[in-house]
């Protein structure tokens, strides 16, 4: 696991108030009660601050799970590998 993967999991764990071990590529609003529309916006804001990126609205709407977040960050050249 890379440093950026660790940063992503820590960020998601804090925003969603879930155990870091429970976060996987499949973690999504569909299976995580605390991932509501408000926390979705908080996640975007935190990602932009932590990784120094900016997401378009199209990118924000395209994200449906953690794997999609990794792909979006990879497109922003943040050193992520997609699985």
Can you characterise this structure?
The protein is mainly α. The protein has a single domain (3-75), classed as ACP-like (Non-ribosomal Peptide Synthetase Peptidyl Carrier Protein, Chain A). The chain contains four helices and no strands. The chain is globular, with a radius of gyration of 11 Å. The mean pLDDT is 90.
Cα distance, first to last residue? Answer: 11 Å
- Known CATH architecture: Orthogonal Bundle
Strand content: under 5%
Structural class: mainly alpha
Order of helices and strands: HHHH
State the major sheet. Answer: none
Mean pLDDT equals 90
What's the CATH superfamily, by name? ACP-like
CATH topology: Non-ribosomal Peptide Synthetase Peptidyl Carrier Protein, Chain A
CATH class: Mainly Alpha
- Flag low-confidence runs: none
* Large-scale geometry: globular
Q: What portion of residues is helical? A: 40-55%
Tell me the count of domains.
1
| Total number of beta strands | 0
Features:
83 residues; Non-ribosomal Peptide Synthetase Peptidyl Carrier Protein, Chain A; 54% helix; single chain; mainly alpha
Q: Quick gist of this model?
A:
The protein is mainly alpha-helical and 83 residues long. It has 4 helices and no strands.
